[in-house]
Amino acid sequence: MNYRKATLKDLDQLSELFNSYRMFYHKPTNLKGGKTFLNERISNKDSEIFVAENFEHKLLGFTQLYPLFSSTRMKKYWLLNDLYVHPDARGNGISVALIQKAKTLVEESNACGMYLETDKTNLIGNKLYPKTGFKLNTTANFYEWTVEK
To answer: Per the CATH hierarchy, to which homologous superfamily does domain 2-131 belong?
Structure first.
């Protein structure tokens, strides 16, 4: 398995994985919109996307991180926003390896850490993240304001 940074050449396969990821979170399929979104992220360099690629050059998973900043720590802080492994490839350590790529990014960018959120119903993720060193923050409240359309 090869773990590397995504490029524009990956858009077709990456868009398929991204579409499946969004559908996992109960969003309607939108392959074209996802491809446009990912093209913008890669082209504008406003996220870091790592992919897991097998020896036949098929993408089996990805993670996407966005840079943020911590004012109190006065450092960069990463949001691990997306992590997805194709169902047929699960159980092979791909998600753990993608998280390790994210940790390397945090260290190499001299950031103070990274955080993520996942649904309470995401049983796989809620087992995975503590296993890879994430700690559940029970001291803070998470609030959200969204624009409904």
So the answer is: Gcn5-related N-acetyltransferase (GNAT) (3.40.630.30)
Please state, in angstroms and rounded to a whole number, the distance separating the CA atoms of residues 62 and 86. 9
Per the CB < 8 A criterion, the answer to whether 93 and 121 are in contact is: no
Q: Which two tokens stand for residue 8?
A: 């524009």
Tens digit of pLDDT for each residue in 16-66? 999 999 999 999 999 999 999 999 999 999 999 999 999 999 999 999 999
* Separation between Cα atoms, residue 48 and residue 13, nearest integer Å: 17
What letter represents residue 113's amino acid?
Answer: G
Alpha-helix runs per DSSP H in the chain: 11-24, 31-44, 94-108, 123-131
